Write the structure tokens for this entry.
Amino acid sequence: MLRPADIKQSIDLVSIISESVQLKRSGKRLMGLCPFHSEKHPSFCVDPEKQLFYCHGCGAGGDVFNFVMKLHNYSFHEALTFLAEKAGIREIEDERLKFLKQVQTLFRKTLLLSQKAKIYLTKRKITPEKAEHFGMGLAPKNLLQILKEKNQLLQAQMSGFKNENFIRLLQGRLTLPFYDRCGNLVGFAARTLNNQVPKYINTEETEFFKKKNLLFGFNFLKQREKVYIVEGYFDCISCLINGIPSVAVGSTSLTTHQAKLLKGFDRVVVAFDGDHAGKKATMRAFKILVAADIYPHAIFLPEGEDPDSLLRKGKKEQFLRLHEKDLFKLIINTIEKLPPQKAITKLNNLAGFLANIHSPLSKLLLQQIRKTFSIKIEKQARKHLETEEQILQILLSSPELVENLEKRQLFEAMENSEIRKTLKYFAKHKTLPEGHTHMNLLARASIYPAQKNLIERAIRYLERKKVCREIVCPSEKS
Ligand SMILES: [Zn+2]
């Protein structure tokens, strides 16, 4: 049995923290930038003697277990396994995990004997060796009876085999094992071979098996270079068989915890199905990945294909040649093509989302939005509208319009405060006071009213400029 005290004794908090935080000595203590909140001056403090840490900025603190749990989003159990591995102490001893291993052996044996399963796997282009490698099995048709005879029903239930009904549903299904980060078997997904509904079932969540914290296939990855995130278990298996590093989310929505697992990878590429749902899920994954401080890329599969279908057709080269798109740039390009009002809403949402994350990546992306749109707006301004005075002149030709723009608070976008004041006055009084500085422009606008396209340009300019200013504001708060 792994004891936390043993692990604490053989592990140094400073060396664990130093893996992710640069610490500098300050008297008896060590200081660094807190990994749990964004800061410019170190308020994160480590006491090597007491083996405790504390952050004066956000109040995070505790021992080595608290640190690892918070940093990697681990459960206590996962932190224990993680640190045991670091300390060179292996294997967790838990009756439930032992039981799962035992059941898996039974499932594997059953698979070897089943002609039906063999035919199914051949169709999927999975050889018996590969099935063995991925720990696949087949739940025997008399599983419930076996468990009863062995007097293991209670143990089965405690290990995630909910109840007798669940076990009956499991019988005759192909089983796929879930491993945690340390390679412990923690649960099963099971697929029907008979078009039974539901197609997939999972063993119940336990202290070890939390599906939203695990990525199927993660334990098979040897390197930390590139990784594809795919939807289905068989997409993942097909990829791995073809030497393509991948993990499966097991549905279309990636979770924050799953994303955090991929933090150490050089490049993360979303490769969801080539249908509408897949595309939507890709956009959702963008947010989840950015929030986990991971720069997201994506490939878009041909309509109706998924990684498994493509690879089974022997189209590995085509899969690998699919252009990896920078998801952020893709989103920005899409927004730019929208009608102004829609673009503004989208851009505001995106900027608001990024401003709320406070990660180095979100700051960078926010800056990029500002840069891209400021340059665009300036270019546009230079091209069509030399100065804000010109805009003023255009707007003065339509009092109703000015009143409307005032209601939409679009004048806030103007740099020049004199012009802002003029427009506000004009919105209210539909004219300017005698001898006003801008009377010449009003005169010109009355005699030569601006053309419709110029008015539209002026409005677009204001709308975009307003967005730009709003984007600037939230990030300046942090
Ligand atoms: Zn902090």
Observations:
- The chain is about 50% helix and 10% strand.
- The two ends are 46 Å apart (CA to CA).
- The mean pLDDT is 86.
